[in-house]
Amino acid sequence: MRKKKLDSETEKKILDAAVNVFHKKGIHGARMQEIADEAQVSKSMLHYYFVDKDKLFNKVFELTMKNIFPKVNSILVSDLPLFQKIAVFMNTYTDILFEQHHSTGFIISEMAMNTDKVLKMTVSAAGFDMTKFRLQIDGEYKKGNIKKMDVRILFLNMISLCVFPFIAMPIQLQRFKISQEEYFQLLEKRKSVITQMVIDSIKKEELVTV
After folding, report:
1. Taking residues 25-50, what's their average pLDDT?
2. Which are the contacts of 61, defined by CB distance < 8 A and separation ≥ 6?
3. pLDDT band for position 4 (50/70/90)?
4. Which of 58, 87, 130, 210 lies at a C-alpha separation of 20 to 30 Å from 175?
5. Cβ neighbours of residue 68 under 8 Å, at least 6 residues apart?
């Protein structure tokens, strides 16, 4: 029993260290010795738990994706009214990105390497279930509550408005000459603005009576 607990704690230490190193340096820049040093274990102990860097990277990538996408996907498949669902989705996604802002650059940079493995892992882990959302959009359009809208365009707008500021954060910090804390305060204020922007873009214009 004691050994099982020790093993579990050691694996967690290794994974926490691997997340830090991979998020900063990617799969090509990371070194197993560096991960072992950060986890405060021997390199042989590291290889005991994870045979090679690819297997450790796969686990880190899987954990990274699971920390982001299931939470927001649960909102898409919920029974929330459409406008409320958009607001909750965008606010929640932005809040997750605040907590996981290192993950955003990590995912994008690894995808940019354009390896089949990373792309397949991304598609599998980020598999948003759009079925209910699509039906909801169609239903609201038929009721006359929203404009005709391609759900793919709406979804891209929602995602990109949340993600882009985190991808571009290093540039914007220099441009605005502010700290990361000040930048996050700015993005917090922006949450309600971008949510209303998306809702207004699909809301049916009311008829003007003369």
Report:
1. 91
2. 22, 107, 110, 118, 121, 125
3. very low
4. 87
5. 96, 97, 100, 103, 126
Please state the pTM of the whole predicted model: 0.79
Cα radius of gyration rounded to whole Å, the chain: 21
Backbone angle region of 40, left / alpha / beta, with phi > 0 → left and psi within -120 to 50 → alpha: left
pLDDT at res. 59:
87
Phi, psi (rounded to 5 degrees) for 203: -65, 135
Q: Find tokens 């102990």 and name the residue.
A: 45
So what's the pLDDT on residue 1? Answer: 36
Please return the burial class of 91, using the count of CB atoms within 10 Å of its CB with bins 0-12, 13-18 and 19+: middle
Cβ burial, residue 114 (10 Å; 0-12/13-18/19+): exposed
Q: Are 46 and 36 in contact (CB under 8 A)?
A: yes
